[in-house]
Automatic annotation (TrEMBL):
It holds the Pfam family BPD_transp_2. This is Branched-chain amino acid ABC transporter, permease protein (BraD-1). It is a multi-pass membrane protein. GO terms for biological process: amino acid transport. The chain crosses the membrane at residues 6-28, 35-55, 61-82. Keywords: Amino-acid transport, Cell membrane, Membrane, Transmembrane, Transmembrane helix, Transport. Belongs to the binding-protein-dependent transport system permease family. LivHM subfamily. GO terms for cellular component: plasma membrane. It is found in: Cell membrane. It comes from Archaeoglobus fulgidus.
Amino acid sequence: MIETLVKIAVFGAVVGGIWGLVASGFSLIFGVSRILNFAHGAAFVSSAFLAYALISEGYNLYLAILAGLLLSALIGLAVYALTKPVRDREVMVIILTLAFALLV
């Protein structure tokens, strides 16, 4: 019984830490660039899915994590390239990041 409670507590702490990192990344993006990047969640999920797919195919854990980080960086660069020309129009930036999140 106690082992189950410990497992649940550890799992909850890990999941809470992951969501805390995602939330702090979203907050950092908004705080620095004043852009509501709705594609941030899509980058997180895409990277996690890629890492999971690579691990389940038998690739090395560290290689899968590196591939996920690279995919996340590429998505971030693509969002930056799309939003750079329309940075001064906030509504267009929101529409672009929402559209990019739907496409990814």
